[in-house]
């Protein structure tokens, strides 16, 4: 029997090296209390492929505003690299919890980009 995959995934690529960003700390939060407070749902690290499996267990997603916070400063410091952005926060809204969502991050010491993947 195959494991059920998370309805929310991320993938971080280090565009400076052309490799997955392994060991990058990230946090997933959801906006609660009528938009007044972030509640942390998970803290994790990217795997050797730059992914974070099991980010949100099946059945735990609900409509709302979410935030992925990536500790980019810690990632670059471990590599002896100066960087411009100490962290990256990607805030997004989920309106249909039956869909799957993929939020990739392309990262360099001086820039980043993200998009809704598939």
What are its keywords?
Immunoglobulin-like; four-stranded mixed β-sheet; mainly beta; four-stranded antiparallel β-sheet; 118 residues; hydrolase
Topology:
Elements: E1 8-14, E2 19-20, E3 25-32, E4 37-45, E5 64-70, H1 72-78, E6 88-94, E7 101-108, E8 111-114
Parallel strand pairs: 1-7
Antiparallel strand pairs: 1-2, 3-4, 3-5, 5-6, 7-8
CATH domain fold name: Immunoglobulin-like
Biggest sheet strand line-up? 2-1-7-8
Q: What's the CATH first level?
A: Mainly Beta
The overall average pLDDT, rounded, is 92
Shape: globular
SSE arrangement, N to C? EEEEEHEEE
Q: Rg from C-alpha positions?
A: 14 Å
* Helix/strand structural class: mainly beta
Looking at CATH, the homologous superfamily is: Transthyretin/hydroxyisourate hydrolase domain
What is the end-to-end distance? 24 Å
Subunit structure: Homotetramer.
GO molecular function: hydroxyisourate hydrolase activity
Binding site for substrate: 11, 51, 115
Pathway: Purine metabolism; urate degradation; (S)-allantoin from urate: step 2/3
Can you tell me about this structure?
The protein has a single domain (8-114), classed as Immunoglobulin-like, CATH 2.60.40. A hairpin with a 4-residue loop joins strand 3 (25-32) and strand 4 (37-45). It contains one helix and eight strands. The two termini are 24 Å apart. The protein has 118 residues and is mainly beta. The protein has one helix at residues 72-78, and strands at residues 8-14, 19-20, 25-32, 37-45, 64-70, 88-94, 101-108, 111-114. The radius of gyration is 14 Å and the shape is globular.
């Amino acid at each position: 029997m195959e494991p059920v995959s998370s309805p929310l995934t991320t993938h971080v690529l280090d565009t400076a090296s052309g490799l997955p960003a392994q060991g990058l700390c990230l946090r997933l939060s959801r906006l609660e209390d009528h938009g007044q407070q972030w509640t942390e749902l998970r803290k994790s690290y990217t795997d050797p492929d730059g992914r974070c499996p099991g980010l949100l267990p099946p059945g735990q997603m609900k409509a709302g505003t979410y935030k992925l916070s990536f500790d980019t400063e810690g990632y670059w410091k471990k590599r002896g690299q100066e960087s411009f952005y100490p962290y990256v926060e990607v805030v997004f809204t989920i309106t249909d919890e039956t869909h799957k969502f993929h939020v990739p991050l392309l990262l360099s010491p001086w820039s980043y980009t993200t998009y809704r993947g598939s």
